[in-house]
Amino acid sequence: MGEKVALPSLSLPKQKTHWTVGVVIAGGLMMLILVAAFYAVLQRQQAREEAYAKRQADHAAAIKAETEKAEAERAAAEAKMKEAQAAASAAAAAAQRKPASSVVTDDGAEKDKSGKKKSSHKSGGTKVAAKPSAPGAPAAAAPAAPAAPAKVPTKASKDIDDLLKSFK
Which residues of 150-164 are buried (b: 16+ CB within 10 A; e: fewer)? Predict the structure, then answer.
């Protein structure tokens, strides 16, 4: 046993990875980049949809507020019209009860044909003839002109009005 035995070397000389391993790693990196880009696109799309829904809700709320305001204005106008019609009918009734020989002067007092001033109050304490307070107010002393009938808005005209208001 005097001779030495040489054992083979187990160290491998500079072993390289196979080229397919590099392709798999590159494919994985590309897949991660694509998933991140897809996620970013989805987030942006969701943010756009939420902003659009918020704008639509704000627009609907504005239209609803305008509609309620218009309804309130219409109701006020109808109330004024009814009040004016009631005042005109009261003035017409008072004119029918008043003798034809009296004339109303600028200061609101009545004169008969002889020129003497009559009392402008009846026994009940109500005023018979009144001077209009504003130039735009309906004349109570002119009952001969009947009030124009109220224009009844139809659904079509209301829709057209709403559409025209939305353009402003």
Answer: eeeeeeeeeeeeeee
Q: Would you state the pLDDT for residue 78?
A: 94
Query: In angstroms, rounded to a whole number, what is the distance separating the alpha carbons of residues 99 and 90?
Result: 16
Q: Does residue 84 contact residue 147 with C-beta atoms inside 8 Å?
A: yes
Rounded distance between C-alpha atoms, residue 83 and residue 73, angstroms: 15
Question: For the packed helices 19-97 and 155-167, what is the interaxial angle rounded to 10 degrees?
Answer: 120
Strand, helix or coil at 16?
Answer: coil
Dihedral sign from CA coordinates of 44, 48, 51, 53: negative
Q: Rounded CA gap, 47 and 53, in Å?
A: 10
pTM to 2 decimals?
Answer: 0.36
Predicted confidence (pLDDT) at residue 31 exceeds the cutoff of 70: yes
Mean pLDDT for the stretch of residues 46-72:
95
**Contact, 144 vs 156, CB < 8 A?**
no
Q: Which two tokens stand for residue 157?
A: 């005209």
Phi, psi of 105, rounded to the nearest 5 degrees? -90, 175
